[in-house]
Amino acid sequence: FDKASEESTDNSKDETLLKLKQHKQIHGGKMDVLVNRNPLSKHRTQNICNARNTYLNRIRDIALIEDYAAKYFIAFDMDDACAGKMDVEVFKRAMEREEKWDSVSFNRTGYYDAWALSVDEYVYSCWGWWSPYEVIDHMRNYIIDKLTNTPADEFVECHSAFSGFAVYKTALFLNCNYDWRMPKRYMKLEELQRQQKILWGVGSISPLEEQTDEPDCEHRAFHMMAIHENGARIRISPEKLFV
Question: CA-CA distance, 40 to 19, in Å (whole number)?
């Protein structure tokens, strides 16, 4: 929730907080309702970032105070991105191969989430270029082709991926945070220059070699920090979780 007050959550009209409290009454101690009390920012991604860091702090509190840390946690977008029927067998197969990943997200038709994606030469955010939707087309075509040609029992290695649903091994992400700014501190200059060449001269919105404060998808910094600090393996399953 983006507002500091429980009485006013955001601009939605679906009474989300009320519905969650009703579920809390049913499930009791099996469920926590967390309210993000940071003031609203003009940057949408900063608001989302604050909300995600709120649940990370709750996971840390449980580990510290209750001396318990679940082996995994799942982050997902509770909107139409994950509203379809889940193929549980796809989920089971990914979990059975957990030795190959520390975070796993999944393929989906059209692979919509180019915002969180950093893979191979496409390491720099689509929002880091003057023509972001042109870059998104490049990235989507690239990842769709790569996932199509990856065997179902393998995973695509990447710097960052989310696509609405991802599983994380708690131990490798507890010391990391979501950040709404472009995480160039985790990128190599030669990687960014190589991507610029692939994009046929599409200009970047800021100097590639400087850490600046352009808004970016919060997942990218989170994943790259986990790679940098803990050697986390961020992977994408070529199988589609939601059908």
Answer: 22
